[in-house]
């Protein structure tokens, strides 16, 4: 039986700027205000990160009624609806918003075009908190489509002023196909100036496209709830490479590597590097003798922290570089 001999690491992989910032917000809030800090929804979709913050004093809740008066509350990186924002304010919490600035950018665009009379088609996954947050920027006039069949069914009240927005963590290729269906049905639809799928999603999918043909199996480190991690696995599968997603090294199964000497490894935008290292150790224990990082983009994007959590020396710049 062949054993895995080489691990090839995708570059870039793992944490993006929005995830870095969201975790930092909870950690700084804990340092400044003490435990507990309440967080609405998982701060980012990763089991290890959530458990680590729980151990440090964060309490994760879904309903604002579970937060005591006067508590400090953090909104997750996925963003929240206007209704949640207003309710949190009305309840008088000390609020810090960890919504990724690239999600906020979509919210701002929706609000601006809504004022100009636009209705929206949103390409995204039903039930994902980012989709709920973005759709919840308006009371009505935003229609969700998950695939081309939905596009055929959608019925906006008017079609002269129609704009399209997307979830930030979609498959770039699937979204392009759905967008083409939207444009075929509504030729005058307005597209975002800059695509809504974020740089981190794009770069990690591009890296998997380079990685997949060079390996016999792809392992994606990510939690089942993580949209962008699931998409990475799909990208590899679509290229014909067997691919598995694991939340931790314990989930690796020896039979995945039987007869496969080159293993590709990547991680979703919410998966910490420590998990990647643990997966590498496990694959080494199964026989791999070399680990090589592919050439790839170096990301330098950084987002500023909310004012109340900045300390001297923090960069005030909004987005240093997008690619
Ligand atoms: S995946 Fe993209 S949108 Fe989501 S937190 Fe990271 S940078 Fe922001």
TrEMBL record:
Q: Could you tell me one molecular function GO term of this UniProt entry?
A: 4-hydroxy-3-methylbut-2-enyl diphosphate reductase activity
Listed binding positions for isopentenyl diphosphate are 45, 78, 128, 226-228, 270
UniProt entry tagged with the keyword Cell wall biogenesis/degradation: no
Q: Which pathway does this chain act in?
A: Isoprenoid biosynthesis; dimethylallyl diphosphate biosynthesis; dimethylallyl diphosphate from (2E)-4-hydroxy-3-methylbutenyl diphosphate: step 1/1; Isoprenoid biosynthesis; isopentenyl diphosphate biosynthesis via DXP pathway; isopentenyl diphosphate from 1-deoxy-D-xylulose 5-phosphate: step 6/6
For activity, the cofactor(s) needed are: [4Fe-4S] cluster
Q: Report which superkingdom the organism of origin falls in.
A: Bacteria
Keywords in UniProt for this one?
4Fe-4S, Iron, Iron-sulfur, Isoprene biosynthesis, Metal-binding, Oxidoreductase
State the protein's name. 4-hydroxy-3-methylbut-2-enyl diphosphate reductase
Q: Which organism is it from?
A: Hydrogenophaga taeniospiralis CCUG 15921
């Amino acid at each position: 039986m062949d054993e895995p001999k080489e691990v090839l690491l995708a570059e870039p992989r793992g944490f993006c700027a929005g995830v870095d910032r969201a975790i930092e917000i909870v950690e700084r809030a804990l340092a400044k205000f003490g435990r507990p800090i309440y967080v609405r929804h998982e701060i980012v979709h990763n089991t290890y990160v959530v458990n680590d913050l729980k151990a440090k004093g964060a309490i994760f809740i879904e309903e604002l009624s579970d937060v005591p008066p006067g508590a400090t509350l953090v909104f997750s990186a996925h963003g929240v609806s206007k209704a949640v924002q207003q309710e949190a304010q009305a309840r008088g919490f000390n609020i810090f918003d960890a919504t990724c600035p690239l999600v906020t950018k979509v919210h701002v665009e929706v609000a601006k075009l809504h004022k100009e009379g636009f209705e929206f088609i949103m390409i995204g996954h039903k039930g994902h908190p980012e989709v709920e947050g973005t759709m919840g920027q308006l009371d009505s006039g935003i229609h969700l489509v998950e695939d081309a069949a939905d596009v055929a069914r959608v019925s906006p009240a008017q079609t002269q002023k129609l704009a399209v927005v997307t979830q930030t963590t979609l498959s770039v290729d699937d979204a392009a196909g759905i967008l083409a269906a939207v444009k075929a049905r509504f030729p005058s639809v307005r597209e975002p100036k800059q695509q809504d799928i974020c740089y981190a999603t794009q770069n990690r999918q591009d890296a998997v496209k380079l990685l997949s043909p060079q390996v016999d199996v792809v392992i994606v480190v990510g939690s089942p709830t993580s949209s962008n991690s699931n998409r990475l696995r799909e990208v590899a599968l679509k290229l014909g490479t067997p691919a598995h997603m694991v939340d931790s090294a314990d989930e690796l199964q020896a039979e995945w590597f039987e007869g496969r000497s080159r293993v590709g490894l990547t991680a979703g935008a919410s998966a910490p590097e420590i998990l990647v290292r643990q997966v590498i150790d496990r694959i080494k224990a199964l026989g791999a003798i070399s680990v090589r990082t592919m050439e790839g983009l170096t990301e330098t994007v950084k987002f500023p922290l909310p004012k109340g959590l900045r300390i001297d020396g923090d960069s005030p710049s909004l987005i240093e570089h997008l690619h």
